[in-house]
Amino acid sequence: MIGELGLFALVLALVLALMQAALPLAGAHRGQRQWMAVARPAAVGQLLMLALSLAALATAFLQNDFSLAYVAENSNTALPWYYRLTAVWGAHEGSLLLWAVVLGSWSVAVAAWSRQLPEIFVARVLGVMGLVSVGFLAFTLLTSNPFERLTPVPAEGRDLNPLLQDPGMIAHPPMLYMGYVGFSVAFAFAIAALLGGRLDAAWARWSRPWTTAAWVFLTLGISIGSWWAYYELGWGGWWFWDPVENASFMPWLTGTALIHSLSVTEKRGAFRGWTVLLAIVTFSLSLLGTFLVRSGVLTSVHSFATDPARGAFILGLLILVVGGSLVLYAWRAPRLAAGGSFGLVSREMALLLNNALLCVAAATVLIGTLYPLALDAFGLGKVSVGPPYFEAVFVPLMLPLLAMMGIGSLVRWKRHAAGPLARTLLPAATATLCAGLASLWWLGEVPPLAALGLALSVWIAWTSVQAVADRVRGRRRRWQALRTTPRSVWGMALAHFGLAVFAAGVTVVSTLDLERDVRLAPGESIEAAGYTWTLQSVRSTEGPNYSAERGEITVNRDGRTVATLYPEERVYRMQSNPMTEAGINAGLFRDFYVALGERRADGSWTVRIQLKPLVRWIWLGTLFMALGGGLAITDPRYRRLTERARLGAEAPA
Amino acid sequence: MTVRQRRATFVLLIVGGVMVATALALSAFRENMLFFFDPSQVVAGEAPTNYPFRLGGLVRDGSLEEVDEGLMVRFSVTDGTSEVPVTYEGVLPDLFREGQGVVVRGTLREDDVFVAEEVLAKHDENYMPPEVADSLRTTKPGEDRR
């Protein structure tokens, strides 16, 4: 019964999405106000139906209703209730439903916070989002119905993939989807602007907070995913250049380019066509990510099903979205007016370089991800490119980007004479040079590249603090000046500072970490990285739906115990897969990380021991970036209805 | 800069960027591309020696043995017709088991022993690496492997 209710709600949601797409777009085209007015109620109705559908699925999970195939595949009566709840998006069908719910939520958010925008523009934005929703709901209903019945009804479910039974999984998919789908707002704004022929500074101002919000969610989503992989997969890595990770990283790169290019369009009216193109590209990459992950083209933890029909459907959707919007772009873009001019040394120029580097970086990731797939598809051999490829292309692109960032935060709009700019940058440059030399000297054997990475972290940290400090210096009332500094400036400084922290963490952990695979019998010790690691014991324990061998490993230095770690080797009863739970002792400056391997014939264990300096800075840095983005969104100027926005707002194009 | 100059800069930057990216990507590809071979191809001598590649197949039942007091293990990877001996020193992944599919990355020594640097087994008992599934299908026609 609950299954039918959910399915019925899903079908109604599709009908409402169709209305939300068709009527407002047609109304905007023909100037029919009543048709346009359908957009908001349809969006709200659609979200209600989607929420009902999701609630039905969640109820089925909580009640262990194994008559639903999806529940039977991914749940179990022994599964704790909170994991039964997160199992809703633990596999393909449910995660698509979540995608649709997230899209519905963004649509309602746009509907609610767009009172200051012209009606015709809102109608177009919601119409485009409705179209996207139609595509995804049709996909869900036609190829991946989460409410499919299973006969005969099994007595017990197959249990959720043990890897996904984890707190990180509660937050990772919804966050990531909020980011992916959030770019549909930026996309819809871009398409609406192309349709209406109105693409100016005001448009960029409307679009900015939405784009930044999506970017914040995507940043958090990727970061949580990386953190989850770090502690759950038991390898101690935080990024694997796995195609699925790349799929989320590409929209992040172009999305980052987009928020910077939007700032130029808002402040200076330049880069209009480019900004629109970036919005289209970013959302297309989000769709491509969904396609790669969900089509079964890639096999990994993330790809749940291999069903050619699904792949073909999303590919078709992708071609429709990319093709349609690019045709629209080609048709409308030549009409766009050019923005103001700027000098060679100017913030516009810095941001132009930033955009070029970010897009090139995204392109190299795209090539590395798709090229092996293409070779395979054309029968030209099976190849793979691993982390070495991505590191080889990524590092040379990121270093100039980091260098440019420091200049970009301090250089003025329009034109900045080279002499004064050099004087502004002198203290930061000095500090950077000192930091580089100090890290070469201090850390002894670090490779020069690592010293460069640390120096650039100092460079960015310094210049981002200076971006705020320079607004205060020389003022009579410093406190006042600090308080009147716009929140978007604070946000930029914080996000850039976060990147500095992130870069420092990445540099240190990738050059100074220690990893050793050893074989230890209980009671045996080993010396590594200046610490004594002792396997005290290995005992059997029982969890709610698994049995485990639980090791106790103490880490000593100078006779003092600095950490005690409890790695586990679990076997989940329903799926009978062994799984490693790493034992981690986290610290701001280092993590001790051990994972149990397998028991050998003589009773000893293989153990992977790792010392990871500054690894927490990676996620701390991304947290700062997200906070910075959040701060920028709250800037009151986005909510102020400007005179320019009001002027000509009612004129349909 | 005038509008014209800016357009030109824009185009130049993008073209230049794409060229740099292509150059970077191609050179990195040449150095880091790993080919995949199955045991039959290795036995037939199609795979290079002393050059890294990936080898995939099933771990032959009963082939896993410990070599010494340390971490070194030896096992055979088979596709049903041929098999290749593999040595590996390190912690084996959770899902490594005899009779299951694996992909190993490493180099083939002159004495035809594959020295693995990395062993991959994926996270599902039903999972078989697609390359392995393919090669099993081609060497043993008629048998259905999911």
Number of strands of chain B: 7
Task: Determine Rg of chain B (CA atoms, Å).
Answer: 22 Å
Shape of chain B: elongated
Q: State the low-pLDDT regions of chain A, or none.
A: 300-305, 642-653
Nearest-integer average pLDDT of chain B: 79
Number of helices of chain A: 20
Mean pLDDT of chain A: 88
Helix content of chain A: 55-70%
Low-confidence stretches of chain B: 123-127, 139-146
Share of β-strand residues of chain A:
5-15%
Distance between the termini of chain B: 63 Å
Q: What count of domains describes the coordinates of chain B?
A: 2
Query: Strand-residue fraction of chain B?
Result: 25-35%
Q: Major sheet of chain B: size, sense and barrel closure?
A: 5 strands, mixed, barrel
User: What is the class of the largest domain in chain B in the CATH system?
Assistant: Mainly Beta
- Total number of β-strand segments of chain A? 11
Structure report:
The complex is a heterodimer of chains A (653) and B (146). In chain A, the strands form two sheets. In chain A, strands 3, 4, 5, 6, 7 and 8 form a six-stranded antiparallel β-sheet that branches. Among the domains of chain A are: 1-165, no CATH class; 514-615. Chain A has helices at residues 2-30, 33-36, 39-62, 69-74, 81-86, 92-112, 119-143, 167-196, 201-232, 243-268, 272-294, 308-332, 347-377, 387-410, 418-442, 448-472, 478-484, 487-512, 615-633, 643-646; strands at 383-385, 514-520, 525-528, 531-542, 546-557, 560-565, 568-572, 578-581, 583-585, 590-599, 605-613. The longest helix of chain A has 32 residues, at 201-232. Chain A is built from 20 helices and eleven strands. In chain A, strand 5 (546-557) and strand 6 (560-565) form a beta hairpin. Chain B has a five-stranded mixed β-barrel with strand order 2-4-5-7-6. Chain B is of the alpha+beta class and 146 residues long. Chain B folds into two domains: 1-33; 36-139, Nucleic acid-binding proteins (OB fold (Dihydrolipoamide Acetyltransferase, E2P), Beta Barrel). Chain B has helices at residues 3-32, 39-43, 130-139; strands at residues 33-37, 53-59, 65-66, 72-78, 83-89, 101-108, 114-120. The chains are: A alpha+beta (653), B alpha+beta (146). At the A-B interface, helix 13, strand 1, helix 14, strand 2 and strand 8 of A face helix 1 and strand 1 of B.
